[in-house]
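Quick one, tokens below. Sequence please?
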């Protein structure tokens, strides 16, 4: 396994309402408002140099190792979801494995692996948490969406192939059995849309600009 690791970064965004002028001060914040050539308005909010943070991040759990071959030796993560009860699951796309961990970071199960058989992956690139706590994994090269119980493993699959090869999955599970994924073409201004897929593989464009 490659010893390269992927850091999962958490970013906090500070948002304030923009005023009508080009710049103004509100509660010790500076708001800059610019109109881009496209006509879109770009707003930047800058806190005062002496502003105190209102959020504090506290590390509760760290898992992963730079060396070794165990399940906590990650190579290239393309998905992470929090499970009910405090556990979590990750998708290591380099070895095409879905790994499940408990709230304390203990390894519970590993599913998948490279292949074309039931529950195997060719190019899995993300995870979604679906109904009943099951894990949905898109695999475009195998033309399917595979569903897993976190502990018991593979349960079923549905036909699915939207050509999203090699990229990190950016879809989301909604309404229990429907998947929405934004799609941007070569010209983002002219060709951007939201694709909607149900668990039977039906596909339709629900929004387009």
């Amino acid at each position: 396994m490659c010893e390269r690791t992927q850091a999962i970064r958490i970013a906090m965004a500070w948002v304030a309402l923009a005023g009508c002028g080009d710049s103004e001060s509100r509660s010790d914040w500076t708001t800059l408002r610019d109109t881009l050539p496209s006509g879109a308005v770009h707003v930047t909010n800058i806190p005062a140099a002496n502003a105190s943070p209102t959020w504090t991040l506290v590390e509760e759990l760290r898992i992963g190792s730079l060396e070794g071959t165990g399940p906590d030796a990650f190579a290239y993560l393309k998905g992470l979801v929090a499970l009910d009860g405090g556990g979590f699951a990750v998708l290591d796309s380099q070895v095409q494995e879905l790994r499940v961990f408990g709230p304390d970071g203990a390894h519970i199960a590993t599913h998948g692996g490279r292949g074309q058989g039931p529950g195997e992956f060719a190019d899995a690139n993300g995870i979604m948490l679906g109904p009943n706590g099951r894990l949905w994994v898109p695999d475009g090269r195998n033309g399917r969406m595979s569903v897993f119980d976190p502990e018991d493993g593979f349960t079923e699959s549905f036909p699915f192939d939207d050509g999203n090869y090699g990229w990190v999955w950016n879809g989301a599970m909604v309404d229990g059995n429907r998947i929405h994924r934004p799609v941007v073409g070569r010209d983002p201004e002219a060709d951007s849309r939201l694709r909607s897929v149900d668990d039977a593989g039906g596909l339709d464009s629900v929004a387009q600009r």
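Residues 1-25, 205-209 have pLDDT under 50 and may be disordered. The longest strand covers residues 29-35.
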